Structure formats: C-alpha cells, structure tokens
Amino acid sequence: MKLVSVTSSVALIMAAGLSVVSSLPLNINHSPLSPRADTCPVDVLSCSSASSGVPACCLPSMGLLVLVQQWYNGLGPLDEFTMHGLWPDTCSGGQGPANGCDANRIYSDIEPRLQKYPGTPSTFLSEMHTYWSSYKGDNNAFWSHEWSKHGTCLSTLAPTCSSDFAPDQDIYSYFSKALELRSKYNLYQALAAKGITPGSNPNVADMHSAIQAAFGFDAEINCVSGVLSEIWLFFNIKNGNQYVLTAPQSRGSCSGYISYPVKSGSVTPPTTTSKPTKTPAPTATSPSGSIPTGKQSGACSTNGATVCVSPGSSNQYSKCNSGRWILNQCKAGPVCYGDSNTSTHCA
C-alpha cells in the first residue's frame, strides 16, 4: 500500500507539470567547513543588502575580511611580503572583540595542533614558518594569538557548521586560506610590475596605482615613520569560502614619498615545536674544502647558521631561520666572508 501511495504522489506531481529532479538543488558543495549549499543562498556577498538574515554558517557575521601582509626586516624571503593576519571585521570596518569570539576555542598550542591534524600537508608548516613568522621569534605564540583573536570570529568555520567536523579542522582551514590568499594576491609582484622594488623611495600614489592595476581594487598602505610596514587587502565572502576583493576602508597612513627598504639581516630565530630536520648537503665548498658556499635551499637544522653565496665577491648569504634557508644581503659591509661551517661576517 505504501508503494502505491508514493507512486500516486509522484504521478500527481508530474501531472501538475513539476519535475522531481529539477526541484532539487543543483549547486551542492559538501566542503567540510561549509554548510550544505542547498541550505545557503548562492552568490550572495557578505555585507551586501541581500545578506541580511543569512545564517552565520553561510556568510560570516563579521563579513569584511582583511588580509594583512607585512614588510618587515628579517622576515621571509627578500622578494616576498609575509603574513600578519586574516581579520574578520564588521561591515563598517570595526574590529572584533579583543579576546576573540569563542572562549571554547582559545588555544596557545596552534603549531602542535597543525602538526597533529591529519589533513595538514607535509610542507604546510614549512610554509607557515617561512611566510607567517614573528619578529618576536615565537611563531607558535604569534599563530595562537591570530587564531584566538581573529580566527574564532570567522563564523563559517564554527564546528557547529559542519556535520562531520574533525578536531582542529577549523584551525587548518583558517591558516591555509590565509596563505592561499597571500600567494594569489602577491604584493611584491604587483609592485615590481610597475618598477617599484625594495631599495627605492616610491610615491605611495604610484603604489596604490600598481595594486589597483594588478588586482582591480586598491589597498590600504600603512607606514611607520615614513617606512612601509603593512598593506591591507579587503574581501567579502560568498558561497561559504569564496573571497571577493572589495574597496579598502581607507588609503592608509602612508603619504608622499616613502621608504620601501631592502630586507636584510634577521630577527632572533624563532623557538618552535616543529620536528627536527636534517641539514641538506652544501651545494658547493670553498677552496679549503671545509666551509660550505653557494645559495642554500630547503630545510636546515641549526637556527642562526649562515653561509655565504660567493665568499669574498658577493654580499648575499643564506641564513637558517625557523628550519628553512632564507636568502639575505649584508648590511654591515659590501661583501660576505665565511668564518666556519655555520658562521659568516660582512665587511
């Protein structure tokens, strides 16, 4: 009898000119940290008039996302901006609570959590140490602060938004998305494409124009005492996890001609909980056969170790920073000289 009843119901629907198949959602996305697409509006931007009343699992309740990249001496490769944070703000640009948005997800051990999370790629922590390092030397503390204050305010990542949430999946999703955006919106390349490179004193108006030309939207450019410090890009979100550039809240604190310095030297090497790595074999040796030379790459184990690229003739040297070799330039002298297997000096 039940089979007859169901069949009759379908027949009635078809008779009414309705399609059972077409009544189902066509854009289904089962991303583990997004609500099902059949429960969320499609292509509605956060902070738009259409976003009013949309559940916080579909669009972030703090719907203006700020990607903050910094230019800091001693952090990251010489030709890359590094991360400060990804900050959910209110639609009018107001910052979130100083203590974050979820007291149950305030952590001080972000690096170990990323290490243990099964979905973390093998190279991910290396990328974090390279592109999201702290000038204070403690990357784990830096990441824990950014997650606790800002990551917990990204409502679409809340565990309750996923039917199959895995512990720390929200943490990985937050940091991996931020690094993805940093790579996609490469500020160094955008500026260099217009001839603006480190060691110059560009007019900040030209920097705004270069960013506008590269990405279609301007950015907020901030300085400290006339020296470039940070560049902020602003986004709205749609479809759970799609970031769409939007206009900045302001043009920033820089004005006129500013200093865009060459990065050199290094801050205190970070103390991390990352797994130890082996130092790669040197790419070349000095005439004595004992001191390595050449541009080093990949992993390293002795934080603070330095190796001249071309002793006695070049000002470049590689430095072991957070378990990775980073290329630097002498600032104390025009040429690098090797002292031992792990130390150099510039004169």
From TrEMBL:
Record's Gene3D superfamilies? Ribonuclease T2-like
Q: What is its EC number?
A: 4.6.1.19
Biased region (Low complexity) positions are: 264-294
GO terms under cellular component = extracellular region
Residue ranges, annotated region (Disordered): 264-297
Give start and end of each Carbohydrate-binding module family domain: 277-337
Which Pfam family is an annotated match for this chain, by its short name?
CBM_19
Keyword line: Disulfide bond, Signal
Principal EC category: lyase
Q: State whether keyword Signal applies.
A: yes
**Cross-referenced InterPro entries, in alphabetical order?**
CBM19, Ribonuclease_T2_eukaryotic, RNase_T2-like, RNase_T2-like_sf, RNase_T2_His_AS_1, RNase_T2_His_AS_2
**Active site annotation, chain numbering:** H84, E146, H150
Among the GO molecular function terms of this UniProt record, one is:
chitin binding
**Where does the signal peptide begin and end?**
1-23
Q: So which domain of life are we looking at?
A: Eukaryota
Its Gene Ontology biological processes? chitin catabolic process; RNA catabolic process
Work out whether the entry's keyword set contains Signal: yes
Q: Which family does it belong to?
A: Belongs to the RNase T2 family.
The protein depicted here goes by the name ribonuclease T2
Source organism of this protein record: Entomortierella parvispora
